[in-house]
Amino acid sequence: MPNLTPAQQIADLDAALARRGTSIQLRKTNSATGQVTVPAKWRGYLPQEVIGIIQAGDTKVIVSPTGLEAFGIPPQNGFAVLAGIPRRIIAPTPIYDGGVLVRIELAVRG
């Protein structure tokens, strides 16, 4: 598989989230004011991933930077609303390729 440009990586992620993702809301505080709705894919952490600050029961959420231009990267101690339940973001991890933000992985708890 050839190396993908950052734009191609984002386009592929957007297409995958459109096919298999679910809409979630991201909040900077536990208030709906200023929240954004984006497609995301989430799952529980695998046993071998439960290390450091990650605990059993935490959830890994993957979102695209698309649609977050004004909102920015979701902050630590912000909230991701999954299936109607606000969950605290314990570790936002922006992933860059060549200085371009191509995806964001969030560790959430609650």
Instruction: List SSEs in N-to-C order.
Output: HEEEEEE
Shape category: globular
Number of alpha- plus pi-helical segments:
1
The tally of beta strands, per DSSP, is 6
Label the structural class.
mainly beta
Radius of gyration over all CA atoms, rounded: 14 Å
What count of domains describes the coordinates?
A: 1
Return the CATH architecture: Beta Barrel
Strand content: 35-45%
Q: Average pLDDT, to the nearest integer?
A: 95
Report the major sheet: 6 strands, antiparallel, barrel
Helix content: 10-25%
Across the major sheet, the strand order is 1-2-3-6-5-4
CA(first)-CA(last) distance: 38 Å
CATH class: Mainly Beta
User: What fold name stands as the CATH topology?
Assistant: Thrombin, subunit H
Low-confidence stretches: none
